[in-house]
Amino acid sequence: MGNLKLPNLFQSGMVLQRRTPVCVWGIAPEGSLVAVCMAGYTAYAVAIDGSFRTYLPPMEAGSGYTLSVSAHGRTITMEDVAIGEVWLAGGQSNMEFLLRDDAESAGELAVDLPDVRCYEVPKIAYAGQENDRDYSMVGVWRKARGAEATYFTAVGYYFAKKLRAELDVPVGIINLTWGGTSASAYVSPEYLKNELKPYLDRAEEAQAKLDPATELDRYRKLQHTMDNMPFDNSMSNLAPIKPDPEMLASMSEMGELFLSRYSPFRPCGLYETMLQPTAPYTIRGVIWYQGESDAAYADTYERLMQRMIACWRALWHAELPFLIVQLAPFEEMMEPLDFVPVRAAQERLTRSSDQVWLACAMDAGMRYDIHPKHKRPVGERLALQAISKVYGRSILADSPAPEGIAREGDMLVIRFAHAGCGLVCCGETPQTLELIVDGTEKRAFSASVAENELRITSPEIATAKTVTVAFCQHPYCTDNVYNSAGLPVLPFVYTLEA
Fold first, then answer.
1. Which residues fall within 8 angstroms of residue 5, CB to CB, at 6 or more apart?
2. C-alpha–C-alpha distance, residues 10 and 139, integer Å
3. Mutual orientation of helices 301-316 and 340-352 as an angle, nearest 10°?
4. Which helix or strand (DSSP H or E) is residue 33 part of?
5. What is d(CA 260, CA 238) in angstroms, rounded to the nearest whole number?
6. What separation in angstroms does the CA of 263 have from each of 232, 255, 270?
C-alpha cells in the first residue's frame, strides 16, 4: 500500500486558512503522485526524497468539508474540516495558561462555538520525548464547546471568540507554548549572532559541565518530578511563595540542567522540535505572550524579538503579522523580578519592526502571581489589534501613548494619541505617576485627565529647567487611565527641557 503520512496537525476537525494558498505536505513513497482533494479542488505533487508539498487554491470560509490525500493506492481522509482564520499562539506560561484556570472559566462552560477550534502542539524538547511523557490530552483539534473549551489557551480562546464574533468565520488557534522559555528557544542558531551570541555561549558553557552519559537520564527524572509536582494554577497568590524542601531540590536540579541538551529552555531547541514540524501550516499571523524569562537580558530583548520574527517569517515564507502582549504588572512570586525594561523593549519593537503591534496588559497584573487570572482583556485586546491592523476595520485598537508635551505656567500638559473620545481615570486621580523636577522627585503635585490630555500641576514646574514625568515605571503598579475603548495608557517616561 505504500507509506503515506501527514503531519499531526492534519486531522479531522482542523481549520485551514481562508483566501490564501493552503500548504499540504507530508511523506509519501518516492516518485509517487500525491493528490490532495477538497471542496472540488485537486492539487498534485510528486514525492521527491520521500516527501511532498503542494498547495490547495485560496478558498472562502466554511465548514463541514472533507480533505483527502492519496498516494500509491492509499488514501487518508479528514472530516469536519473548516476554512477560516488560523492564528498561532506562541510564548511562555501566560499564553500556555489554560481556560480551565481562568477566573471566568465557569462562565464559559456553556459556550457552544464549534467553529472556534484549538490545537495544542505537543511539548517535545528532544527526539524521543514523545515516548517519555503522556501526550494523550494534546495534539488534537478541540472545539469551543462546553468543557472541551477549558483545554484552550485562555488568551487564545478569548482572542478567537472575539474574532469569530467580528468576522463571522471559523477561527483556529495553534497553541505552541512552553512555560518558562526564552524567545531564543524558538529561533535557529544562525539568528543568534553578534550581541545575541551570549545565548549560545551560556548554553555551551552549561552543557560542558554535564556528563553526557548521565545527562538524559537526569533530565528524564527531573521532568517526571516536575510533571507530577502539585501546583494549583487556578489559585491566586496573596504573598510570595515559599518553596518547600522538595521544590527546592527540584529547583536546584533544574538550575544545573536548565540549558541541558535535552531542556526546552536551551536556545534553538524548540525551534527544531516544535516550530519546524508546525511550519509551513498556513496561518494568518501570530499572537505572542512572552518576555518574563528574558527579563535578565532586557537590553537585547528587542533585538532578540526582531531576529525571532525574521526567523519565523523566513520559515513560513510570509510577512506574518505579530501581535504581542506587553507584560503585566508583577513584583515577586518566588523572587523579585523587574519587567519595566522588557515592557519598554516591547514597545520599541512595535516602532522598529513592520507589522508588529502591541496589546497593553498594565491593568491586568497581580503583585505576587506571575500568571494573572483574568485573560479575557488580554485576548480581546489582541483581537482588537487583529481586527484593526490585519483585517482593516476602522476601530480604536491602540492604547493611548504620549505624542506631545507642553508647559503652561505651573502646569505640564501631555497630549495623547489614541485617546478616542477622551481619556478616563478610574478613580480620583491617575496612579503611579512620578514628577521629577531638575533631577529631584516631587511628591506634592496634582494630576487629572481631560479630553486627550494628562495635566500635572506643581508650583515648581513654572521655573524648572527639566521636567520628567514617569508613568507605570515600577515592576508592580496601578494603571488606571484609559481611552474611550477601555484600553489602558502605555507606560512612558517623558521629559521637557527648558
1. 26, 27, 28
2. 10
3. 50
4. strand 33-38
5. 34
6. 23, 11, 9
Q: pLDDT digit string (tens) for 144-187? A: 999 999 999 999 999 999 999 999 999 999 999 999 999 999 99
Phi and psi, residue 108, nearest 5°: -100, 0
The answer to whether residues 90 and 100 touch, using CB atoms and an 8 Å cutoff, is no
282: which DSSP letter?
-
Chain centroid, CA 283 distance in Å:
15
Residue with cell 533631577: 439
**Terminal CA-to-CA distance of the chain, rounded, Å?**
81
Q: Collapse the DSSP code of 411 into the 3-class scheme (helix H, G, I; strand E, B; otherwise coil) and give the result.
A: strand
Euclidean distance between CA atoms 290 and 326, whole angstroms: 8
Please check whether residue 102 is in contact with residue 154, taking contact to mean a CB–CB distance below 8 angstroms. yes
Q: What amino acid occupies position 19? A: R
Q: How far is residue 275 CA from its own chain's centroid?
A: 14
Query: Using CA atoms, how far apart are residues 495 and 142, in angstroms rounded to an integer?
Result: 50
Of 155, 89, 149, which is closest to residue 113 (Cα–Cα)? 149
Which amino acid, 207? Answer: Q
Q: Which H, E and C letters describe 319-369, residue by residue?
A: CCCEEEEECCCCCECCCECCCHHHHHHHHHHHHHCCCEEEEECCCCCECCE
Is this structure's pTM higher than 0.90?
yes
Pairing of strands 424-425, 411-417: unpaired
Distance CA 186, CA 264 (A): 10
Phi and psi based region of residue 139 (left: phi greater than 0; alpha: psi -120 to 50; beta: remaining): left
Tens of pLDDT along 99-121?
A: 999 999 999 999 999 999 999 99
The DSSP call for residue 153 is B
Burial letters for 125-154: b for 16+ Cβ neighbours within 10 Å, e otherwise?
bbeebeebbebeebbbbbbbeeebbbbbbb
